[in-house]
TrEMBL record, chains A, B:
Domain of life: Bacteria
Keyword Oxidoreductase among record annotations: yes
Name of the protein in question: Malate dehydrogenase
InterPro entries per UniProt: Mal/L-sulf/L-lact_DH-like_ah, Mal/L-sulf/L-lact_DH-like_NADP, Mal/L-sulfo/L-lacto_DH-like_sf, Malate/L-lactate_DH-like
Native species: Mesorhizobium denitrificans
Pfam assignment, any one: Ldh_2
Molecular function in Gene Ontology: oxidoreductase activity
Lineage of producing organism: Bacteria, Pseudomonadati, Pseudomonadota, Alphaproteobacteria, Hyphomicrobiales
Keyword Magnesium: no
Amino acid sequence: MTATSQTKLPMEQLRSILTTACHAVGCNDGNAASLVEATLSAHLLGPPAMGLPHFVDYLEAFKGGRIDGRVTPQVTRPLPAIISVDAKKGIAQAGFDLVFSSLVEQTRKTGLALFTQSNSYTAGELGYYVRRLAAEGFVALAATNGPPLMAVASGGQRVYCTNPLAFAAPGGPLGGQIVIDQASSATAFVKLIKAAAAGEAIPEGWAIDASGAPTTDAAAAVAGALLPFGGARGANIALMVELLAAGLSGANWSLDAGDFRSSDQSPAIGLTIIVLAPPPGFAARAAAQAQRLASLGVHIPGLRSANRLLHDEETTSVDAEALATIQAITAAAGRQTNFSNQRSARS
Amino acid sequence: MTATSQTKLPMEQLRSILTTACHAVGCNDGNAASLVEATLSAHLLGPPAMGLPHFVDYLEAFKGGRIDGRVTPQVTRPLPAIISVDAKKGIAQAGFDLVFSSLVEQTRKTGLALFTQSNSYTAGELGYYVRRLAAEGFVALAATNGPPLMAVASGGQRVYCTNPLAFAAPGGPLGGQIVIDQASSATAFVKLIKAAAAGEAIPEGWAIDASGAPTTDAAAAVAGALLPFGGARGANIALMVELLAAGLSGANWSLDAGDFRSSDQSPAIGLTIIVLAPPPGFAARAAAQAQRLASLGVHIPGLRSANRLLHDEETTSVDAEALATIQAITAAAGRQTNFSNQRSARS
């Protein structure tokens, strides 16, 4: 893997750069705010690739017609504790923001609530959603799907996306959280792409080639499919995620979702989040147990992220290449926008 | 593996044999009915070992003081859609039966409901709970823990039970269900015991020995610990199950639960079930998708079980050895009961 070059800038400046970029590619204020805050959260607390590098995918998707940046999600309440959103081919984060306070209120009132959303662009960093709910004191479980990237056995075709599952609970030490955010696949598709670009081999069990045969050739894997983690059990987790994310929301099954990088249509996928109010004392008890498990050598995911929340970062280190790409897209879109404004003024 | 000898008998006769056995070891009518119906369901639809062979564990646990067969679970409703049960050191199935209709009613009313239970004997076949909820038209997710059997890495000590996760949804073809019921461990502990008894080696990755080193020696594995399926991702699933099952319910963490086969105390573990009302048309849409996935070679778990529900089995094939053990325990306990009755009459 090649090291990515980093540059430092104030958080407020980064927020401003990202917001300007959203506006340049045709995103309205509300959608821009939703996407930028989720991107900053992923940048600070999630896997690095889900911050600025993935934001570039969003900008390209606005330009390519895979995201409608001007829509307002449509909310329905089929039953009191179910909040269902039609994302209207917009971003997934906008619908979540729109109903977040209702979701919190409903969970406090009845003890649990369900968020289902159909018809959105891919959900971005899934940990983002559950972290926000854990910060409200809840235990949360999220599932999402997307265009097909994973076969479930050698010889099979792609039938699922990476179908991640995220889980968060209050209870990290020092007021933090325990956050699990993991694909049902053996690895992320972006890792295949990176390994292919670097000409590196991939471990056995990660992927198959286009003929369905197991491969350690990264380029062959990109043309082929990811495999589930842990064999049949991981494949079952992927199926569960599919039924939760696309089944409960009424969204596209992964098999029917268009490519999030090249189609001119929204992948129109699903996002389902279960929010649970834990009993009094849960956070303290979970924190003590997490520390006890950690003392026995168990990795408690999310704790490092939680620690990063403890200080208010004034400046942040960002991926210089992704930042340059974002600024180039903004400049090019800005010129297009100005040009089209001029034409509008003339007509 | 050695084949188990089978014998056939009418379902009603099997029900009667199991009920008599429960009564003989000190179980009241309600607890006996709950345990027998769960055992018959596991026998017909679950993994064979979770039917009659596991029922023997229950009988021994009643006798050994690990289950109190005369208690009534205590129900509280901390919030409208949360039903919490203290199993009072009884069986897990009794609390579920006691609140089942409330759980169904609450889910229909608000869209979802949460069942949490603490202080019970190990939950038995976890698929049982979610199958019953899927039969009501719901999507359900269940998590349970138990005495520690699993380390999460080489060199580690046992920190979790097999920590299974079960999921069911209406939507198998022919009115059936999709049912996932799987351990977070690479295999079941009973498979280590069987392999050790047969002097067979176990695959790499299943277990470690007592020193924490990876092993393929089944006897060494029994003295050591199971490992999670799929490495770090499976370990995270086990942690999520632990927080759902023991955290949300307030039950013993796996680390604190006594052995379900040898302690004289209830393991006092947790069981948490999330019940979700799917949107109209879910079952038909899920069934069509399950058939489509199956046509692409994807194994859809639970479908074979669902097919077995299609005919009303008048006679059933049972594990002859387990049946003989159950009858021997019943006879011995019956003699003890008579003897103690005589003593009571004399005093």
